[in-house]
């Protein structure tokens, strides 16, 4: 039984732009799925629909096991500048009414989980871009969600930081096996991270093809430089070209 | 001491010396233009008259500023909560703002029996708009993604206002406050001038008028100096408050760091 069943979902914005044109997709429990597509193919819209931040114009989104707790990581770190890393990470717990001592302990734990122990009292402006993104991930994971939605979270980072974060994200996922939906426009990133890639066509977006990546975890630099990896990237790239041409 | 302090201080001293020198060299009588030394002496000798007048003007200014913060802030909150209220009221706030206070001050003074209250209303009218418009802008400049995040975690409207919109609007509000501080003083002085020509006020502007009638020009200058000093003090105080509130996180307070 999948975690979520998306059927023929379309989304038309008030200004008449059709972002999604009949998306169908199943996402399994504990799966790491990447949604790969060109800019403006409605990937972000799909995430917002999954998060319940918008309602689809047509089609259905079913949660056979009930709506799970979810975390959301935006393209930008999206931190509140007036509070510390700890305050930012503790926000979801605060909004749920958890007591201060408890939420701060859990937030500190989540920060340590993303490798930021010792930065609890830092303000966002004192952190680098990669560190801010780590805080953002810690905030999404602090509620221990069953589902983590990520909207091109590393797109604005440099290559070296991005690689490090990819590896660390996989380590976090392997530890708790939340369901991960990772939106990206990078072929390399999607192949490196996921078990399955859903390739989307340009606007109006729909899922054109799916590609299973069966390489075992943990995936390291060895996988990232292997011939298998290169072949899979070529395959995914070809599917993306097809989807864009369609 | 950096050039930031030395340059303007040297410039000021130079201008004062030039002023005093010209007054002496051309033997300009004090009832046309008193030199800075005479103004300083008058400031000391007439302190007994000027100080109470300064207190009166400052009291009105600060009361008006406080009222501007309360009413401007409350209106901004109301506007951010209801688009309809904003659409219906904002144009009138602008009309109040663009109407010259000199033109309506006589009406207000005629309508309101208590002179102090009428002065307060005039100063408030000039001061409240920057706070209102800046705070509205700030409340609306919240990161869309953060709003989504709050929605995602089921935050109520009230909670979102308290934890997200208010802190995000704080730098804008403080910017408005600094402008309003100066405007409140100007509003109070203008209203005093209007009221003073009817002989019904006791603030610094009234002292200026009175000195003008009596040709006590040095005292007039001394009163002017006091008004400027008060304006500068208000600005510095509000800047300090703003700095203290923002220094840990806002870009505007970080200038010297990099």
UniProtKB/TrEMBL annotation, chain A:
CDD domains: ABC_NrtD_SsuB_transporters. Coiled coil: none annotated. It comes from the Bacteria. SUPFAM superfamilies: P-loop containing nucleoside triphosphate hydrolases. The keyword DNA repair does not apply. InterPro entries: AAA+_ATPase (IPR003593), ABC_transporter-like_ATP-bd (IPR003439), ABC_transporter-like_CS (IPR017871), ABC_transporter_ATP-bind (IPR050166), P-loop_NTPase (IPR027417). Residues 4-227 form the ABC transporter domain. Keywords: ATP-binding, Nucleotide-binding, Transport. It holds the Pfam family ABC_tran. GO terms for molecular function: ATP binding. Belongs to the ABC transporter superfamily. This is ABC transporter ATP-binding protein.
């Amino acid at each position: 039984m999948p975690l979520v069943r998306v059927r023929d979902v379309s989304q038309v914005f008030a200004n008449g732009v059709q972002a999604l044109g009949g998306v169908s997709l199943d996402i399994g429990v504990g799966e790491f799925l990447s949604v790969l597509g060109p800019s403006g193919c409605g990937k972000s819209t799909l995430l917002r629909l999954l998060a319940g931040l918008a309602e689809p114009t047509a089609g259905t989104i079913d949660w056979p096991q009930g709506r799970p707790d979810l975390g959301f990581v935006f393209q930008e770190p999206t931190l509140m500048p007036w509070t510390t890393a700890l305050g930012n990470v503790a926000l979801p717990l605060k909004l749920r009414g958890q007591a201060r001592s408890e939420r701060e302990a859990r937030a500190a734990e989540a920060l340590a989980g993303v490798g930021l122990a010792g930065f609890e009292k830092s303000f966002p402006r004192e952190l680098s871009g990669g560190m801010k993104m780590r805080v953002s991930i810690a905030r999404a994971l602090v509620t221990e969600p069953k589902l983590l939605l990520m909207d091109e979270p590393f797109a604005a980072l440099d290559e070296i930081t991005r690689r490090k974060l990819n590896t660390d994200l996989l380590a976090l996922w392997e530890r708790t096996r939340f369901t991960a939906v990772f939106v990206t426009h990078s072929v390399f990133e999607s192949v490196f991270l996921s078990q399955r890639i859903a390739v989307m066509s340009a606007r109006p977006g729909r899922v054109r093809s799916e590609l299973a990546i069966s390489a075992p975890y943990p995936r390291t630099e060895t996988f990232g430089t292997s011939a298998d990896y290169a072949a899979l990237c070529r395959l995914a790239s070809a599917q993306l070209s097809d989807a864009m041409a369609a | 001491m950096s050039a930031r302090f030395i340059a303007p201080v040297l410039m000021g001293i130079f201008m004062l010396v030039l002023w005093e020198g010209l007054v002496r060299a051309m033997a300009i009588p004090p009832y046309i233009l008193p030199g800075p030394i005479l103004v300083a002496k008058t400031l000391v000798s007439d302190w007994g008259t000027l100080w109470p007048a300064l207190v009166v003007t400052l009291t009105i200014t600060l009361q008006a500023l406080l009222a501007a913060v309360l009413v401007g802030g409350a209106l901004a909150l109301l506007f951010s909560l209801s688009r309809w209220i904003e659409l219906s009221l904002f144009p009138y706030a602008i009309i109040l703002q663009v109407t010259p206070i000199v033109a309506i001050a006589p009406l207000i003074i005629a309508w309101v029996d208590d002179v102090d209250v009428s002065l307060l209303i005039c100063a408030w009218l000039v001061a409240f708009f920057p706070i209102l418009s800046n705070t509205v802008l700030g409340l609306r400049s919240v990161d869309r993604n953060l709003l989504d995040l709050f929605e995602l975690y089921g935050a109520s409207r009230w909670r979102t206002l308290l934890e997200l919109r208010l802190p995000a609007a704080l730098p804008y509000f403080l910017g408005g406050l600094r402008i309003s501080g100066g405007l409140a003083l100007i509003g109070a002085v203008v209203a005093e001038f209007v009221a003073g020509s009817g002989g019904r006020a006791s603030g610094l502007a009234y002292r200026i008028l009175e000195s003008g009638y009596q040709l006590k020009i040095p005292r007039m200058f001394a009163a002017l100096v006091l008004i400027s000093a008060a304006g500068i003090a208000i600005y510095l105080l509000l800047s300090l408050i703003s700095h203290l509130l923002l220094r840990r996180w806002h870009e505007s307070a970080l200038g010297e760091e990099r």
